[in-house]
Structures are given as structure tokens and as C-alpha cells.
Amino acid sequence: MKWSFARKLTLSFCLILVVFSISLAVFELPREKNHKREIMEERLDSYAEIIYPYFLRHGFGRVGQDSLLHFFPGNLRITVMDNAGKVLYDNRLDDLSRTENHAGRPEIQKAAKTGKGSGIRFSASTHQPCLYYAKRLGSHYIRVALPYDPQIRRLLKPGGAFVYCLLILSALGLVFINCTARRFGRAIKRLSDYAAAVNKNLPVDMPDFPDDETGAVSRQIAEDYRRLKESEMKLSLEHRKLLMHIQSSAEGICFFTPDRKVAFYNGLFLQYLNVLSDHITVDASAILDEAVFSDVVAFLDDRKDRDYFETSFRKQGKFFTGRVNVFEDQNFEIVLNDNTRQEQNKLLKRELTGNIAHELRTPVTGIRGYLETILDNQLDRRKEREFVSKAYEQIITLSELIRDMTLLSKISESPGSFHFKPVALHELIDKVKSDLDEALRAKDIVVRSSVPRDLCIMGNESLLYSVFRNLIDNVVNHAGESLTVEISQYNQKENFAYFSFADNGAGVKNEKHLSRLFERFYRIEEGRTRDTGGSGLGLSIVKNGIAFHGGSISVKNRLGSGLEFLFSLPVK
Predict the structure, then answer these.
(1) Is 568 helix (H, G, I), strand (E, B) or coil?
(2) Which neighbouring-strand residues pair with 567?
(3) DSSP 516
């Protein structure tokens, strides 16, 4: 049976009280007994003080001494001895000649040393226990004795009042302890029930604690405990959020204890570790044993009060960075990041910058050459006009290049500047045909559209215009002459319309170039040189414009001749 707190408290205090009472009785009863004995000895001492002067005046014979006995108790025994212990007088013995020397008696030996002595022993003369008291006075020993009978025993026995008083006080103490323990136990029980309910997340009100110091302390403890549980719940929630964040993080993260034991890691960390490791493993701590991570281990072995370390790894054609963060409690984390895409983007940007510089250099160099020729030479009017016309054509090329680059940059960096609305696609295609009518007639190119007149695309009109204009410009500049372009819708599903843009021109002879047609500044020889015009960004604008609307595009060679672009756009 499990005991309550109040019962345990009562039992503990009862044991303490009992031990205290017994200890007090053991200590106090002998003291009281000794005290009563001292009182009795003082009384006997006064007898001796009275007897000695009397004997000095009247001598130590029996004549006249018996009259002295009338002043003392009838059972009092008086013995007078000289320094050697010879008995000179004894009121209980008639013949002193046969009395042995008393120098060896315990009380006489004590009196010889300290001036007085006492003791309880059997008398050799009367054969009964007696309380002896001897005192050395002058050259004599005066010894008085009382029979150690029941009356003396009662006189020397510790008083019962003390025992009774001790028992009564102990009983009252037990009652008080029990009441106090029960009251305190009720507060503890309520506090315990409240804590149990809070632990189980049950709705519970503050208990009705006693209106005293115990209740005040209990209320404070209950309130602090409630706040603690709320903090624990919030901390647990934040911990779960953190773990969910770590699991979904784009970084590989692993936490270690100070003794380099794995505490937690996410799946991406193990994936990156296996890419960088020579062996497949499911143990995250293997990172500390791999040679590729030797810099990390060296940092952990000799930190020199540093709390942060970063390094990089390159393996399997991928780029990774690694970070080590050491926390205040000496736990630490290792973070792995796959920077392959960023590195590729850097490379792509470098290539793009080089391509832009190269593409700008060509028209700028041409313009400069034509203008220098005009300025440095005396040309006839016809030749001068020819050079100015060629410089103007290069300026147009340069202007188109800047325009297309600006449009691509705007698509990727400022998508919010393009506003969507329903766009009638058939009307938009007719507008593009009208704007390019002169170029189309010059190349004898016919554009036919079978797009339904009631089809509306949810998109940005200017961006959709650039998509179709660049597709037609691509045919004009690279496909050849006397061609036909067919624009049609071949399917519509899940709010997307699917289109085909096909021509019967030159196409792409080597199909390895097809996958790169949408790259910026990518050109194909044999009909796709700079001599044919264009900025080299047209198809890149087409792909980015369609992707901006949530669609996709692909290209293939048509059976026979020409190219066909297949793409999708969202319908209203």
C-alpha cells in the first residue's frame, strides 16, 4: 500500500518525537535521581555537622550520647571513627571490641580523599542495605547511615510527575503533528493532483489551497509549474518545427555531441555524404573518417577558440561547401551545401558576359569601321551613302540586341512588371503578320493561322507578341525563301491550349543542335550566321516568354523539311 505524504510526514515526526522523549527521559531521570540523592546527602551532612561538636564536648563514650539520638530519626545509625578507621562509637553496636577496622569501607576511603563520601551497600554488622554518608571532621570521621528500605527508595526514586508530564506533552505533540501533517498533506495532495492534470494536458483550475503560508507557497509552485509546462509545450513545438525545417532544408545538416556522437541529421546530409564518400554508408558519423573531410577533422582537433570553419569540396563533377558551427555547450553541426547549380550559373554568366561582349563587338566594330572610312577618306557621295547605310544597318542590329537583352532581363528579374489579361490570340497573330508584311513579302513567305477566333489566352499581350514575332523572325532570317508557315491549335486540356508552329524551310540538318536552339546567342552555321541578321536571342525570348506564362516549348525537325515548334499557353 502506498502511503500518502501526510502519513509519511506524521510517521517521520512521530519517530522524531519518540526518540526525543526517550532521550530526554534517559538523560533527565538519572539527573533527578542524583539530585534527590544529593538532597538526602545534604541532610545527612547536616546530621554529621550537628553530631561532631556534641561528641567533642561530651566525649565518645555511650554515656550521655543516647540523649542526642532523640533529635534524629529512630533508624539513623551513627558511627564515629578516628583517622585510622577505628570505631570509637556506634549507636547500633554494644561491644565495639569485636568491631573490625572501617578504614577500608568505600565511603571512608572517599572521605579520606575528598572530605566526604557516600554509597549504598550491605552492612557487615546489620546485614541489610544502607545508605552511608561519611564526612571527615578534624581528626575523626563521622558516618551516618539510613537503612535502604522502601521508604528511602521512594525518596530517591525519580518523581512520576516528570514521566507523566513527558507522556502528556508527547501525546499532545503527536496530535498537533498529525493535524499539521494532514493540513500540509492536503495542500501537497492538491498540488500533486494539479501537476498530474497539467502533465496530461487536462483543463484544470487552480486548486483551493489553504489561506496561509503553505497555501501561498503552493499557489506559487502551481503557477510556476503551469508556466513551466506551457514553456515546455512551446519549446517542444518549436523543436518539432525546427526538425521539420531541417528535414525540408536544402542543406545537409548533422548535429554532433561534444564527444562526436551523432545527435540528429536529415536525409539530404546522408545523400551528400554518399556523393562525396568513396563508400555508400548509412552512418552519418562516417564523415569524420573520410579523407575528403580531413580539413573538417583537423579544425575540430585544433580549434584554438574558433567557432566557425568553412571549406569546399569538388567530386563527381559536383561542387560542395562545408561549414562547421561550434555552439557554446561544445555541441557542433556540420552543414553540407550542393553549390553545383550556383557554380554552373557563375560559369554560364561568365559565358553570357563573353557572348554579350562578342555580340556587341561585331556591330560596334562595323559601325566604327564605316564611320572611320567616311571620316578619313574623301569618298564620292554614292560611296559615302553606301557606308552610312551599312553603319545604320549595324545600329539597327545593335538596337535589336539591346532590346532583346532588356526583355530577357525584365522577364527574369522583374516579372511583376508584366500584367495579365485575356488576349485574343488570332488578332495578335494578325498584328504580327501585318507588322512583318514587308519582310514576309520580300522572302515570299506565307503565314497561315487556323487558331480559333474566339480563343483567348490569359497572359501579357506584349510578351505574347514577342513570342510570335520572334518565331516568325526566325523563319524569315534562317529558313529560306518561298515558304509556308502554319500556326494551329491541336489540343486543349486542363486550362492549357497546345499549339504547333511549323514551316517547310531548311530545318536543322544536324539534330544535335536542336536541344541548344533556345540558348542565348547560340548560332548554327550553314544559314544561321550573323550575316542572316538577328540578335541571337530570339528563340531564348520565345522559351522564356512561354515559361513565364506557365507553358513549355519543344522543337523538332518536320518529316520532309522545316522545323516545328510545339508549345502550350494558358487559356482564359
Answers:
(1) strand
(2) 499, 553
(3) G
Q: Given this structure, which CATH class describes domain 343-401?
A: mainly alpha
> In terms of C-beta density within 10 A (0-12 exposed, 13-18 middle, 19 or more buried), how is residue 421 classed?
exposed
Whether the predicted pLDDT of 487 surpasses 90: yes
Reduced to 3 states (helix: H, G, I; strand: E, B; else coil), residue 135 is strand
Distances (CA, A) of 497 to 94, 244, 383, 500, 566: 153, 39, 53, 10, 11
How many other C-beta atoms are found inside a 10 Å radius of the C-beta of residue 562?
21
- What is the 8-class DSSP label of residue 571? B
Q: Which helix (H) or strand (E) holds 90?
A: strand 87-90
Which residue spans of the chain are classified as CATH 3.30.565.10? Answer: 419-570
DSSP assignment string, 401-442 = HHHHHHHHHHHHH-GGGPPPEEEEHHHHHHHHHHHTHHHHHH
The pairing of beta strand 332-338 with beta strand 421-424: unpaired
Residue 247 Cα distances to 106, 251, 372, 478, 485, angstroms: 96, 9, 64, 50, 52
Higher pLDDT, residue 375 or 348: 375
pLDDT of res. 414: 64
- CB 539 within 8 Å of CB 524: no
> Mapped to the 3 state alphabet, what secondary structure does 136-148 carry?
EECCEEEEEEEEC
The CATH 3.30.450.20 domain(s) of the chain lie at 7-156, 249-338
Fold of 249-338: Beta-Lactamase (3.30.450)
Q: State whether CATH 3.30.450.20 applies to domain 7-156.
A: yes
Pairing state between β 553-557 and 496-503: unpaired
What is the tens place of the pLDDT at every residue in 20-75?
A: 777 777 777 677 777 777 888 888 888 888 888 888 877 766 655 566 677 788 78
The whole-angstrom separation of Cα 103 and Cα 317 is 119
Half-sphere exposure of 120 (CA within 13 A, CB side): 11
From CA 87, how far away is CA 79, in angstroms rounded?
Answer: 7
481/473 Cα distance (integer angstroms): 13
Task: Give me the CATH code for the 419-570 domain, please.
Answer: 3.30.565.10
Least confident of 18-27, 89-98, 246-255, 444-453: 18-27
